[in-house]
Records
---
Amino acid sequence: MAESLWPQLRLKADTEAELIELYRQVYIETYVFDEQGRKKTLTGWDGQHYQFSAYAFDHAFTESKDYRTNSGINDGGFSKKRARRILWIKEVLALSAGTIQRYSQTRKTDRGRQAKRRTMVVVEEQYVVVFNDPKTPGEPFQFVTAFPADRSYLARLRRESYLAETRKS
């Protein structure tokens, strides 16, 4: 197997609940709040601003058995595969390595409204990071999820989205 662009974070704990809390702490300290408890805003390689909600952790780092048929509920439990790549999100925003394709897409929400999304794909890793577009211009993009994707997901993304740009580190 080829080496990854970035190392995976492999935390250890006595129970799964403790492990989840360790990864949650890394997420919150890295993306959500600074040392003074203020909301963090990260600036990406594209000059845009990105924010992360503490609540997004549960969605982003759990699996879904079938995302399309279960109304977006991630019912497959905590995902070590996703959590081990938790620090990759900041690497994607920094464009620190690899080739990133930025897609723009519109999808229907659970309430039938149209939502715009920005999806970044790290080509070499087949790694996807998704943000909701701001509702008001000038506001930051909001983190939704990040995960290693399979070929069928990437094919559907390419079919149903607009490729806005491709950048190499």
---
Amino acid sequence: MNEKEYDRGLGIKTIGMREWYTQSAHYNRYEASPYEALDALFDEYELGKSDIVVDFGCGKGRLTFYVHNRFQVSSKGIEMNPQMYQEALENQASYMQKNKQKDGFIEFEMCLAEEYEVEPTDNLFYFFNPFSVQIFSKVIDNILLSIDKKSRSVDLILYYPTMEYIEYLETTPFEFLNEVKVPRMYEVNDNERFLIFRYEALEDGQFVR
């Protein structure tokens, strides 16, 4: 399926890019993760019903709807731009009309990423280069503070990862777990990949997620 067909199947509208000309250089333009890339990632990285996915800089919410539809997991989108947030809510209304019977919840919150209060049940965080490494480091600090309060294993997924993000994570307790290349796209551009990092909590010697 192409992008339009995928959107139509979910009952949403997420295609296109949007530049922000009046805001801080710390926050990047809107561009949804390609469905082809998401298919490649989640063919290798499966989610469980107890997972709660948080997408920072969610825009119109594509990732949020995708994981809910594919895995019936709960998902949250964090978006600072009022127009994008409103479009995500409109997409949510149309999506739910087509997917009333699925498990899990969908939520959107309008706030700066670094001001989002990480909840003790959040355990998977997605980033498609939504902001500068300065903002990224603040978000990671908030995630680690949440882990201190409620011990659990947490995964970070970086799409089209920057060296600044990768180098920063090397200074944190998160460890590299896996790389997923987007087959056809990676042949043209070797940035077309996902990197997964994990903070692993152990309880009685067993992996806890």
